[in-house]
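Q&A FORM
Asked by: J.P.
Topic: structure of Maleylacetoacetate isomerase

PROVIDED:
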Amino acid sequence: MQQVPTLVINGQPISQSVAVLEYLEEAYPDPPLLPKYSLQRAKVREITETICSGIQPLQQKSVVLPKIGDEKKNEWGQFWINKGFVALEQLLNKTAGKYCLGDEVTMADLCLVPQVDNAISWRLSIQKFFEVFGSSSHLFFNGDTSNWEQLGLVLRYVVDGVPVERLLEFILAEETTGESLCNLVFQSLASNGLDIQLCRSQTMDGAGNMSGKNVGCAAR
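REPLIED BY: S.T.
REPLY: Here is the structure written out as tokens.
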């Protein structure tokens, strides 16, 4: 079907994400992509198939655009991803720890992260999906992020009179002063080609010090 990913082993191509992951698990079992016990393995596969069979085909742009057209593509993609994430949220509410199943990375996590990225590209607001958002966020950075401060940068803008909210990225914050957080925001906007002069800031949760009178985002 001329699709990626495709893994080539000894000249033999293996396509489709789940088939590739199952091969890697069998050929290279350490570190494992599936847990030890049968029921847990089944739950990982359930989450994986919910993403790869239940969500991904219905929001794949090469399939959607020829049938739906460019005008209604976002409405279509958002509907099916939202429907899938509602189901995922219920599953992860019972299984998630740091990752989709407990505190170890499994093949479910390797499928969830690109699906969250797709959801963002479809302009779906994912903040309401706490478990989906939380389980995927740890893999946006390398290493153990449990004690790291992370700044989530969300942009709100209007397209054709419709308000849109989009997660731009997570930013590792080594310092949490108003000035340092402000500098991170400026750097992120510049790297994404956005003019700070056209933006207005709003802080949420523990980032209130960004509005510092002297050196925070509001001041600058």
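FOLLOW-UP: DSSP finds seven helices and four strands in the chain.
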